[in-house]
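Incident log, structure service

09:12 report received: a user says their structure output differs between two submissions of the same chain.
09:20 pulled the input from the user's history:
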Amino acid sequence: MAVYVDGSALCRFFLDVPQSAAWREWASQRLPELRRSELSVTELRRVTASLDRSARVVADALVERIREVRFSDQALARAAMVEGRLAPFAALHFGIAKAEPDIDAIATYDPVLAATCHLHRVRVVTPGRAPLWWSSVVARTPGAPEEGNASPDAVVDPEDGLPQ
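09:34 re-ran on a clean worker, output below:
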């Protein structure tokens, strides 16, 4: 299965920010499994615009090595499901991760997107961060089930906190 990469993760190839080294190590070993959209690329190009030309050339080469996923009608419909919870671009990332049949996870460092994906049973990959890291950043949505507790008898996977 594949991992969809949003802009917050893709940019960590080029920025020296927390968890960048862990991201680069993890992602460089899994390039064939990664998927990106033109939105991810746009977010990457916004970040690399301030870097020197050689970094932009490397970014373009990297983008070519990651398979593109286009916005389907299903992805747009899934994005509309989370209107009001996520910003529009984050909702589009969610839509792709949720709708594409070969994608079973999302790589993101956006806490609200991570929490929303987790709530909708999309596995969240965030190298360098603790499992369920977003729960300390994002308040629980009123009426939503507790993170990782779909039922009282659920067995929780320690890797991602989702019921098995």
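09:41 both user submissions now match this output. Likely a transient worker issue. Closing.
09:42 reviewer note: The beta strands are 2-5, 34-36, 67-68, 103-107, 123-125. The domain at 2-136 is CATH 3.40.50.1010 (Rossmann fold).
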